[in-house]
Design goal:
By secondary structure, the protein is α/β, with parallel strands linked by helices. The protein has a single domain, classed as Decaprenyl diphosphate synthase-like (Undecaprenyl pyrophosphate synthetase), CATH 3.40.1180.10. The chain contains 7 helices and 6 strands. It starts with 5 loop residues before the first strand and ends in a 9-residue tail after the last helix.
């Protein structure tokens, strides 16, 4: 069976689910938080050490302003209400991406990272205002400034995920088959599962089924 240390998820389909069942994209985003809670519990149950969630991409700024404001209010409320419980569960929170938000949200994100810094049961990485192409460009700039060789090791060391193992498994819900500028470097050897269900409909059984399938894949990494 394959070791599973890091799962990355593109949580696609919240808005479509909301329009389909509640006539509101925002209702879908709210419902999607329940799925996040379920996945966190199952991640801990399966003794997986890292979980990376694609929360908001650099391209998501193109969405309607009202929807963006709702998303960030939802995130603020989630962190304010849940960070103490996450901390008690020995969960570490890390933010990937550029913290170019309101001063209030930036402070909250920094406080959550600081509070949970030494926790070790599970590390949850929230990709917020994150784009992999921008991340790679910034890594190259750091390398050039440092006047060190451009090689695989130095690029990895200058990414935002420098102390995080690459994902073993990527799950994307919503019946969309693309990476959408998410962890392009880090996902080079990940097993990728595209799930038809929209994110709010994704449940514990779906998650565990994918994990089981992953465990039984023969992974050669170039070998026979």
């Amino acid at each position: 069976m394959n070791p599973l240390n890091h799962v990355a998820i593109i949580m696609d389909g919240n808005g479509r689910w909301g329009v389909r069942y509640k006539n509101s994209r925002n209702a879908g985003h709210k419902e999607g938080l329940k799925t996040v809670e379920k996945v966190i519990k199952q991640t801990i149950k399966n003794k997986i050490k890292f979980l990376t969630l694609y929360v908001f991409s650099t391209e998501n700024w193109k969405r309607p302003k009202k929807e963006i404001n709702y998303l960030f209010n939802l995130l603020e409320n989630f962190l304010l209400n849940r960070i103490d419980e996450l901390h008690k569960q020995n969960i570490k929170l890390k933010i990937l991406g550029s913290k170019k938000f309101s001063p209030k949200l930036n402070k909250l994100l920094n406080d959550c990272e600081k509070k949970t810094l030494k926790n070790s049961k599970l590390q949850i990485n929230l990709a917020l205002n994150y784009g992999s192409k921008s991340e790679l460009i910034e890594a190259y700039k750091k390398i050039r400034t440092s006047k060190i060789s451009i090689n695989e090791k130095n690029i990895t060391r200058n990414l935002q995920t420098k102390n995080i193992p690459d994902p073993d498994l990527l799950i994307r819900t919503g019946n969309t088959k693309r990476l959408s500028n998410f962890l392009l470097w880090q996902l080079a050897y990940a097993e990728i599962f595209f799930e038809k269900k929209l994110w709010p409909a994704f449940n514990e059984n779906d998650y565990n089924k994918i994990i089981k399938q992953y465990m039984n894949i023969k992974r050669n990494f170039g070998k026979v």
